Amino acid sequence: AQSVAQPEDQVNVAEGNPLTVKCTYSVSGNPYLFWYVQYPNRGLQFLLKYITGDNLVKGSYGFEAEFNKSQTSFHLKKPSALVSDSALYFCAVSRLKAAGNKLTFGGGTRVLVKP
Amino acid sequence: DTEVTQTPKHLVMGMTNKKSLKCEQHMGHRAMYWYKQKAKKPPELMFVYSYEKLSINESVPSRFSPECPNSSLLNLHLHALQPEDSALYLCASSRSGGRDDSYEQYFGPGTRLTVT
User: Fold this and answer.
1) How far is A72 from chain B (nearest CA, A)?
2) B60 in reach of chain A (CB within 8 A)
3) CA distances from A58 to A38, A48, A75, B56, B116 (A)
4) Is any Cβ of chain B less than 8 angstroms from the Cβ of A51?
5) Backbone φ/ψ region at B59: left (φ over 0), alpha (ψ -120 to 50), beta
6) A94 in B contact zone (CB under 8 Å)
7) What pLDDT, in 10s, does the model give residues A25-43?
8) Cα–Cα distance, A100 to B46 (Å, whole number)
9) Around B15, how many Cα atoms within 13 Å sit in the side-chain half-sphere?
10) Cβ of A102 and B45 within 8 Å?
């Protein structure tokens, strides 16, 4: 079985300050980890993924994430948050089942960036 | 083109109606998915199609019936729904339909369904 936890329902940060959204996972074997963002009344947008290699992954819109195997974490970070980063963020891990790709999502973290 | 399109954007239907949701992608992706998402919750997987064949059904009630007419299209047929089925229905696609789960999924904007 696999699971993903996002311990914070909401993160508040001032514009220009660093943003961190936490994610921990539990999976047997090597994980494939993803971050998605969802704006109101929209679908999910892919931000970045960790498959293998460098533990620091860079993605879209200035976001990056660090894979930490010993802590089973994959925290999303942005050095300087923008008001437009306010959205719902989902961490996900993939698991092979039959053919295709099944994602297990965390519960989501709402990010509010204040001017 | 990294776009997944869904129609309609909004749908209101009675419990005795029959309606269909449509999804289309032109990225050459071989896996397509239907998700159900309630407000402020993560998406819940409903169905996965791999190479146009149903590969995963997450024990979805039979009032939801998926169909994959070709590699670019995915439909979700709805019949005799319940008010608790009201949700945002998301379609997604990914490059690989095979035993490689490293590819990200691309999501459409969703259909907001209200069952009255």
Assistant:
1) 18
2) no
3) 18, 7, 12, 31, 44
4) yes
5) left
6) yes
7) 998 777 889 999 999 878 8
8) 13
9) 5
10) yes
